[in-house]
Write a structure and sequence with these properties.
This protein is mainly α. The chain has helices at 3-28, 33-64, 68-89, 105-141. 82% of the residues lie in helices and 0% in strands.
Length: 142
């Protein structure tokens, strides 16, 4: 069996499981356990995506151009540094007007880290769009 067929069937299986879980979530009303299952499935899918990106990038990169491993290493290092900076900036303060069960300091720190990452990446995306449009405008005038 060729690698393309394995990937195609694997993707089909992931899509079918995702759709099945989504339908199950709607049937349960997205209450209690259903939300936990859907969140865990999201974590699994994100983990698979990152793992696939890194592993397939390494395999294809090594095959096509061994020097591309340096670029992949720089990207992974950059992501790690970005996560570390977001972690350092995270305060971990409790949520204001929160009346639920007590949340640990580690969970608050992790939540703030993820929020900081969202702000940084969102700002970078907006900046990239603006810079890209300005560069295209300047290049089209030449």
């Amino acid at each position: 069996m060729k690698l393309n067929k394995i990937i195609k069937w694997g993707m089909l299986a992931l899509i079918l499981v995702s759709v099945g879980l989504l339908i199950w979530g709607f049937a349960k009303g997205f209450a209690g356990n259903a939300v936990d299952v859907l969140l865990y499935w999201t974590y699994i899918m994100l983990g698979l995506a990152v793992f696939s990106w890194v592993v397939i990038g390494l395999i294809v990169g090594t095959k096509n151009d061994p020097k591309s491993l340096v670029k992949i290493g720089i990207v992974i290092l950059g992501v790690a540094v970005l996560c570390f900076i977001a972690f350092l900036l995270a305060k971990g303060n409790p949520a204001m007007a929160y009346n639920g069960p007590e949340v640990s300091a580690g969970t608050l720190k992790l939540t703030d880290t993820i929020l900081n990452l969202t702000y940084i990446v969102g700002g970078a995306a907006i900046l990239a769009i603006i810079v890209g449009e300005v560069r295209m405008a300047i290049a089209s005038k030449k």
